[in-house]
Design a protein that fits this description.
The protein is an all-alpha fold and about 300 residues long. The chain has one domain. It contains 14 helices and no strands. InterPro entries: AA-Vitamin_Transporters (IPR050638), EamA_dom (IPR000620), EmrE-like (IPR037185).
Length: about 300
């Protein structure tokens, strides 16, 4: 299906989405001061499902049985798996580095479209893939952190895995669900993965004892995770799926051009260290993203 030319509304939506998503990494960082990476993941998924519960009955009725497997896959790749990968990565990476590495999403979207959906690439796209990945390796290597360069590279691989998940989700929505309302996609995919996570979080997940032991700090951390769930997950996913439907998967994924800027600014505000060599590394990543978008 041909993708139409993006409008001014699409570009403004892209900007707003970048602000929402770019803030998620600093929220994860603050949540990790109290909760484990696994607890943040199940809380994020569970609170997201809870926030969407008023819409559940109406939108779940619109789903046909044959649509459930691909929607479950959208939920797993677009929400569930990245919800675990990002907090685990941020136990060893700064929030700004994680946000900057997330700019690989368009490259991963292109690669999934090429390998899975058989979209034939041009030479510039293949070059862009190589350049972008080299930039990501350099970025993970030169960014100041608490661990060694080797450990940073290893945990950067988790961020790359999350980007591949986002790329898979975007392609699934673009190819199979263009005619399905965005809120229906969001509600269904989130409920399929979020309801089990909500039950687990407040039973076997140890969230309640952790919250009780942490006192006031625990409630602040829960507040950050709640904003992460409702704003950077539910609202952002709804806007993203709508943008995919309006303008296509590759244009929507270019939100990753702007997310690193927002994440970097939050990191500087929070006194995270910055090295000048990060600038050419970011440049290589963005150049790779640009080339990968060539038709």
């Amino acid at each position: 299906m041909l993708e139409r030319r993006p409008t001014v509304v699409d570009f403004l939506t892209l900007l707003g989405l970048s602000l929402i998503w770019g803030t998620s990494y600093i929220l994860i960082k603050y949540g990790l001061t109290v909760f484990s990476a696994q607890q943040i993941a199940v809380l994020r998924l569970g609170l997201s499902a809870l926030a969407l519960s008023p819409f559940a009955l109406t939108h779940l009725r619109r789903i046909r049985l044959r649509q459930l497997p691909p929607l479950l896959l959208v939920g797993l790749t677009g929400t569930a798996i990245p919800s675990f990968l990002f907090p685990i990565a941020q136990t060893h990476l700064s929030s700004s580095l994680t946000g900057m590495l997330s700019s690989l999403t368009p490259l991963c979207t292109f690669l999934v479209a090429w390998l899975v959906f058989r979209n034939r690439p041009v030479k510039e796209q293949v070059i862009g893939l190589v350049v972008g990945l080299l930039g990501a390796v350099l970025l993970a290597y030169v960014t100041p952190g608490e661990g060694t360069q080797r450990s940073q590279l290893a945990y950067a691989g988790l961020v790359l895995g999350a980007c591949f998940c986002y790329g898979t989700s975007a392609n699934l929505v673009a190819h199979y669900f263009r005619q399905l309302p965005s809120l229906t996609i969001t509600v269904t995919s989130f409920f399929l993965v979020g309801l089990p996570a909500l039950i687990y979080a407040f039973t076997l997940g140890g969230v309640v004892p952790t919250l009780a032991a942490a006192g006031t700090e625990g409630w602040w951390a829960l507040g950050y995770v709640t904003i992460l769930a409702v704003g950077s997950t539910v609202l952002a996913s709804f806007v993203f799926f709508r943008l995919v439907q309006r303008s296509g998967a590759v244009f929507a994924s270019t939100v990753s051009y702007l997310i690193p800027v927002v994440a970097l600014l939050w990191g500087l505000v929070d006194n995270e260290r910055f090295a000048l060599l990060q600038l050419p590394a970011i440049g290589l990543v963005l150049m790779g993203v640009f080339l990968s978008k060539r038709k």
